[in-house]
Structures are given as structure tokens and as C-alpha cells.
Write a structure and sequence with these properties.
It comes from Vibrio sinensis. This protein is an all-alpha fold. The protein is about 80% helix and about 0% strand. Helix 1 runs antiparallel to helix 6 and helix 5 runs antiparallel to helix 9.
Length: about 450
Amino acid sequence: MSTPQADSYVVVGRKEKFAYGLGDLASNLSFGFVSLFLLYFYTDIYGLTAAQASLIFVIARVVDAIFNLLVGYFIDKTQTKHGKLRPYLLYGSIPLGVLTVICFTAIDTDYKFAYALISYTLYCIAYTAVNTPYSAMTNMLTQHEGSRASLSVYRFTLAILGYLLVSTQAEVFVGMFVEPSDGYVFAASIFALLATFLFLACFGYTKERIEVVEVAQTPSLSSLISSVKLNMPLHFLSAYTTFVYITYTLWMAVAIYYINYVLNDSGFIGSFFFVQTAAYAAGTVIAGRLVDWIGKKRLALFTLPLGAGALAIQYTIDPSNLMLIMACVCVYSVALAINFVVMWSMVADTVEYSEWKTQVRAEGAIYGYFNFITKIAMAIGGGLAGWLLQYYGYSSETISAEAVNGINLMMTVIPAVLFIVSIVFIRFYQIDEHQYRDMIQQIQLKKLQLNSETA
């Protein structure tokens, strides 16, 4: 089926895809570092309890999730010479870099909890102000579904590079200093500076192509709410995403503890994340071809049970059997990577669904809502990590057998259950590849009709 939208239904070139991917490389240099090390920094370096750290993660991410909705609203009201999304990268990257460093600055004060809560909350808000519009850019660069899937592949492939850098090099930077607290400030500074430059490169080498039809005025708040409320594919996608993101956040937060106390080998951190990241990269790279072959929904339904099974098996393996443990980690990582590519390419399709159903194109509202869902999920995952550590009696001074078993469960069985629950919701996602192409054609026909009526 041909499409009449030649100016926006375009195949995006490799240079621009790479430039777009630099944004997620930057995101993971910042957010990946925070996700992997901040909980450990709070409990083992800064001296907070696991319960205090858990409360910080919950409060900060709930505030951030609410702010995310406001960002979505402002995006849909934004019209500049740089577009509606890219300006947020231009003006938000520097504050984000500064706040990344502040989160890992161990201020010696009687108000450690308050300082950590405020600094992390501000960091989350700054990250959302940059990452929400960045995520929505997939939808504004092209309407070509193949290019959108390819953009997601580039995005997550370069995100992996950022994750690999922080997971393998952070401990190297920290180890350069006698005081670990000084090492974390240095590592955060290096990653934040590089992330800032990469966000600016992403801004400079991408182009927004989708034109928003002016209908006498910008969309009203009620129309933006309706674009989300009436979007059933978005709601099923969001429920599926919630459980995948809780899995991801919990697993990320507990990984350092798992290596240190279950595998009992702190020297294995770099190797663990190198192998895990390689598997995640492989999953990201093959995701695009698999989507073209069997479709997004079917791919999710195949890989989620596969990942859950690997996690469940991992719990039964003796910690000394590193090869078999890493095999399970790799299967889980491949499944996780594929589902991230799937979900983020699906959310772009729900924007067209909303425009087709309500005649309102609302990238900001939909991506703001979707990012709100991911932030709530990460709040639950981060809070769950700290709460379960406290529940299983974790203390950085004395590690009990109960705490070690609890950490093992948090790394394996609990994420497996969450993966299984996510399957229930993705089964009800309605948009397939044929329906998507039909919606694109109908949307363009309506635009042509509107233009002819107003000419």
C-alpha cells in the first residue's frame, strides 16, 4: 500500500539515526550510572539505611512521574524554530549534568536524608525534562514504521554502549581514589560531562519532519486528555511496560549486591556487566529483524517466557557455577533488550492511533503519560529493592544468610514472576503492522480533505 505522505513517510539515513542514538548513549551515561550505583552509594558509602534509600527512591520518582505529565503538556504547546522536542535537549542537558554530580556528592551533614532526597528528586525532574521529549523524537523524525523500528535499534544499541561504559569503568574511576566518596564524584563528573556533549550532538544532527496541522488553535487540555483516555492500545501497552520496568529497575538496583554477596566476588563486577551488556546488545541488534519477521506483539509473547524461565533456573544454580549463571543472565538480558525495543516502537504507533481516533496529534501528552507510567514503575522497582533489602535484614556491616538468599530471590525469582505477569497485558495490545499502515493512510486523507476545505 502506498502512502501519500512523502515528506514525512521517509527512510531516515544512518547518520541521523546514529545522531538520534547519541541521545540514549548520553541518557545511560547519566541514568545508567545512577540506576546501577546510587542505591549502593546510599547504603554502603553515604551511610543511609536501606529503608531510607527506599523511601527516597519512591518519593523522588513519584514526584518525577507527576512532573512528567506537565512536561508532556508543555511539549504539545511548544512550537519553536528548532521544533517542539529538540529544544529540551538544548536547554536541559547542562542542568542534568550538574545534578548528576550533586547526587554523588557526599555532604557531611546531620541532614543526609534530606540532602539525598532533594538532590535525587531534582535530578529525576531534570532527567525527565530531557528524556521525555527525546523519547518522543522517534515519532517526529519519520512516519515510516521500518525507520521507527530502526531508530529504536540505534537508540538502544548506543544506550548499551553507555551502560557498558558506566558498568565496567565506574569502579575503575572510583578505585583511583583512597576515599570511595571522592571516586564517585569523579566518576559522576566524567560521565555527566560526556553526556552533556552527546545530548547537544543529538540536538544538532537530527530533524523533526512531522508537521502538526494547525486547526485554529493549539490542542486544548481536554482534547489532550481524551487522546490518552480513549487510547486503549496505549493502556494495555502501559500495563505491560509497568511490569517490565519494575523487573528492570529491581534487577539493576540489586545487581551490585548480587555480585558482592551471592557470587561473593567483587572483582567480578566488570566481567559480569561486560558479558551481560554484550547479551543485551545482541538482543537489541536482532530485535529489528525479528520485528520485521514475526511482528512486535508476537515477539514479546515469545521472549517474555524465555526470560522468565532463565531467571527461575538461575536461582537454583550453585553460585560457584559462574558459566551457567552467566548463561541465564544472558538469556534474560536478550529478552529484556528485545522487549524494550518492542515497547518503545509500539508507543510511537499509539500516537497515530490517537490521531486516527480523535483527530488530535498529541506526542507530548502520550509520551508524557507513557513516561509517567515508566517513572511510577521505576519508583515501585526502586522502592521495592530497598524495602526487600530491609525485609531480608540487609546491613552493610553484617551480611546474614537470610539477606544473601533474599538478594538471590530479588535477582531471579521475583523478576521472573513480574515477566510472567506482563504477558497477560501485552496479549490485549490491538495494533498490528497492517492496521498501522491503514491508519496512516486514513490520517493523511483526512488532512488532505481538511486542507482542501480551508483552501
